[in-house]
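This part of the workshop introduces the protein records we will be handling. The question running through the whole workshop is how a given chain folds. To make this concrete, we reproduce a full record directly below:
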Amino acid sequence: MEADKINVKTFCIAVAAVVLVEACARAASIMAAVHPLTATGVARCIEIGLLAAIVTQFGNGMSSIGLGRREIIPGITKGFVWSFGFGLVVIVLGLILAGFGSDPLRLIATRLPGARETRIAFVLVGALVAPVAEEMFFRGILYGFFRRWGAAAAITLSTLLFTLAHPPGAGIPFTQMTGGILFAAAYEAEGKLMAPIILHVLGNAAIFAVSMMVSGLPS
């Protein structure tokens, strides 16, 4: 993809906007007793609108983040191709791990809410709204800005920030690191943001599906 697609002004305004929205969402969940899931979902929707407005008003339009009208359909197609290829890799690695006595399903599973309604909302936010907002910011804005220093720097920095932005868990966050590298690689190769968006959406949906399967298995 082309380097230097996101200028300094667009980068600074976008970062400030996302930080402000995230701070307000956290304050609302703590001080106003808003459910964290609701706060997160609303925050991500606001971020999608704000980022689109920022790149349109202060940048070079939606095409500068690979979301121009002519890039939508080809990006979706490429996203499914990347998802299919990565899915095959994951299946092969899972079979190899299972052959060595590991449980690959439990390695990628995440904890889901207990209540049915909350679980549905969690999946909708985590597998649809959040991936769109995160790809617009981490790949569209951050990667697009860091790309002026080369693809390696952009992949490293955007993946590092993407990983740090997610709640820490026990051990090394392999899922976030792998996802960050994969999404950035797809964006670099295709130059269309819908490619990593589809990857992210399908990847999260697969993780949630596996998590539901694992929650029904004996530990």
Notes: The mean pLDDT is 91.
